[in-house]
């Protein structure tokens, strides 16, 4: 699931376009192109042959003009015409063959790159997703990859094909008449300088455009996901304005690109055209003087004309290559991000010593990687021991770091300092997969995927059977599932039936308990339930909690009462541990947090059975 509220692209991520040359960047595509290299090279070779065939036309023309035409031999002219027709048909067939050769392999290159990107995104740490806007990731997986595929199919081949054709053409021109050939060749040097300068300017415009597409995607995605808030607050105008501004900026960038391209195309067409005009005049004078045969001049000019498209196209081929380089760079920016590190296998991990069982935090320090440098860490020094089989409630003011602390147990974030052990084993030395089968979590925000109820719940334990599923739904008091159109087979999530907040929360809870995990971490799992349902869930949850070691974030006294002991989180430390009664008696802050909740609940009385205001 992409994060939806991450900030727009961090400017630090935008690598200056000039940092790595386009060629070096594009060479990184090689691993993906490798499997299809034979077909691709075959297609390119076919295209080179087809393109060079066009250079044979002038030779045939020269033969016709200097031979049959001069000799007044109609049969010879027909023969020549037949040869030209055959050449034309062959050329067309070869270009068709090229297209057929590359289409399928290149689609598979795109699919492979997209697959790798998706897999990589799944393995990147949560911290990465906190940092990157989802639209930037989406646009990399869609638009950018399409640009890359088109580059492999078209500009890359034709840069080679046209390059070979131009060189072969000029060899022919010089061979026919070196003086006229040099006149035509004269614009080459200034054109190369111009193309080089154009490339770097165009590269930065292309980069800007692609990043802006990413920002635009983010706005579209947020407006769709946040449609209720936008409508509820009547913000569609401002949202539309944000969209319009961004798309206006993008339009500006695209226009800049078009202007640059128009400029270079103009020059690329004009200079050779002028050289051709000069050659035509000089050539005609030479023919008039009898220094040159008419056939040679015809052949010379038609060779030059055959080279027009290859030369004219260089400009936009370079532009497309530049865009492909940018797209590739954007793709690898994500691919180069390090995946979650595996646990460093501690040689001979210590066996559970006496008293080391259960879940233990030792001197745990944590600060978010993207937090400002000067800020205090969220968790300063956490020392806490949840004994084996015990249920510990975690209480603290809002923003005190409870969610952060719970996310450390399944290693969604890496500790800044200290260690966390499960039955004496450091979680840093465990394989992630093992860790995540030991620990089950239910988060504050219950997320359902577009899948059936059963599939959503069984994400918690893939191998669980129907009986376990029923039990888990029972614990979570998710009886409403039976009333759904297709019971547990009903599709929910974005593409399915919409469930209420409390219903989603109960499914998330069922997901956490379905595998009867040894360690259970619940972040305020009952916040959206009415008091009666909450009481029922609590009664059922007691059994599950008795069998596992649990850390439960709680805001209300009723949830706290599920726990054997309570830990109070304050100022980045655990400032008190004890039973609910003990803490009520001995700790003013705890008393304040709990009594506040109680008072508010009483105030809410007739209004809200939802227990609102308790958070
Ligand atoms: N991804 C993040 N990046 C940077 N800072 C974060 C991130 N998530 C949370 N924080 C900060 O960490 C602090 C603790 O947040 P946390 O969500 O752990 O609080 P909490 O105790 O769960 O609050 P609540 O009771 O409202 O759920 C907050 O100041 C918050 O701004
Ligand atoms: Mg929280």
From TrEMBL:
<feature type="transmembrane region" description="Helical">
    <location>
        <begin position="150"/>
        <end position="172"/>
    </location>
</feature>
<dbReference type="InterPro" id="IPR036640">
    <property type="entry name" value="ABC1_TM_sf"/>
</dbReference>
<protein>
    <submittedName>
        <fullName>ABC transporter ATP-binding protein/permease</fullName>
    </submittedName>
</protein>
<feature type="domain" description="ABC transmembrane type-1">
    <location>
        <begin position="41"/>
        <end position="323"/>
    </location>
</feature>
<feature type="transmembrane region" description="Helical">
    <location>
        <begin position="260"/>
        <end position="282"/>
    </location>
</feature>
<feature type="transmembrane region" description="Helical">
    <location>
        <begin position="294"/>
        <end position="311"/>
    </location>
</feature>
<dbReference type="Pfam" id="PF00664">
    <property type="entry name" value="ABC_membrane"/>
</dbReference>
<dbReference type="InterPro" id="IPR039421">
    <property type="entry name" value="Type_1_exporter"/>
</dbReference>
<dbReference type="GO" id="GO:0005886">
    <property type="term" value="C:plasma membrane"/>
</dbReference>
<dbReference type="InterPro" id="IPR003593">
    <property type="entry name" value="AAA+_ATPase"/>
</dbReference>
<keyword id="KW-1133">Transmembrane helix</keyword>
<dbReference type="InterPro" id="IPR003439">
    <property type="entry name" value="ABC_transporter-like_ATP-bd"/>
</dbReference>
<dbReference type="InterPro" id="IPR027417">
    <property type="entry name" value="P-loop_NTPase"/>
</dbReference>
<feature type="domain" description="ABC transporter">
    <location>
        <begin position="359"/>
        <end position="596"/>
    </location>
</feature>
<keyword id="KW-1003">Cell membrane</keyword>
<feature type="transmembrane region" description="Helical">
    <location>
        <begin position="40"/>
        <end position="65"/>
    </location>
</feature>
<dbReference type="InterPro" id="IPR017871">
    <property type="entry name" value="ABC_transporter-like_CS"/>
</dbReference>
<dbReference type="Pfam" id="PF00005">
    <property type="entry name" value="ABC_tran"/>
</dbReference>
<dbReference type="InterPro" id="IPR011527">
    <property type="entry name" value="ABC1_TM_dom"/>
</dbReference>
<dbReference type="GO" id="GO:0015421">
    <property type="term" value="F:ABC-type oligopeptide transporter activity"/>
</dbReference>
<dbReference type="GO" id="GO:0005524">
    <property type="term" value="F:ATP binding"/>
</dbReference>
<feature type="transmembrane region" description="Helical">
    <location>
        <begin position="178"/>
        <end position="198"/>
    </location>
</feature>
<keyword id="KW-0547">Nucleotide-binding</keyword>
<keyword id="KW-0813">Transport</keyword>
<keyword id="KW-0812">Transmembrane</keyword>
<keyword id="KW-0067">ATP-binding</keyword>
<feature type="region of interest" description="Disordered">
    <location>
        <begin position="595"/>
        <end position="615"/>
    </location>
</feature>
<dbReference type="GO" id="GO:0016887">
    <property type="term" value="F:ATP hydrolysis activity"/>
</dbReference>
<feature type="transmembrane region" description="Helical">
    <location>
        <begin position="77"/>
        <end position="97"/>
    </location>
</feature>
<keyword id="KW-0472">Membrane</keyword>
